[in-house]
Design goal:
about 120 residues, alpha+beta, Nonspecific Lipid-transfer Protein, Chain A, five-stranded mixed beta sheet, 5 helices, 5 strands
Length: about 120
């Protein structure tokens, strides 16, 4: 692949942000869900990223967030596939390659965001 994993991960986060922010139904549904989400690519320890959800809008930054509400951890290719919509989070979660740490409500909300954007 021509792009390095870090650039591919960041490009997939850009796409995910675009899809979340372009979905009026999601923006309305998440208008009161303000969360910080750490994105950990286990095979790229030098790469840090975080997602912020504020008043229905999503943004991300290439840096860690202090005290995240949710921690999403997986190999970079798994994260890229999820953020690009190439795969759902279900299979990697069930096989253990994706781990999520947070309240059950937050994890379900994040899964629903993915479902609303990409479908099953």
């Amino acid at each position: 692949m021509s792009e390095a994993p870090k650039e591919r991960l960041f490009a997939s986060l850009d796409l995910f942000r675009e899809k979340v922010n372009d979905n009026a139904r999601l923006r309305q549904m998440n208008r009161d869900w303000n969360r910080d989400i750490a994105v950990v690519a286990r095979d790229l320890p030098e790469v840090e990223a975080s997602i912020s959800m504020r008043e229905g809008q999503m943004d991300w930054q290439p840096q860690a967030v202090e005290n995240p509400h949710i921690v999403l951890s997986a190999p970079a290719d798994v994260l890229i596939g999820i953020f690009r919509g190439d795969s759902t989070p279900t299979e990697p979660y069930l096989d253990g390659s994706l781990t999520l740490r947070g309240t059950q409500e937050d994890v379900l909300r994040l899964d629903f965001v993915s479902l609303m954007i990409w479908g099953e």
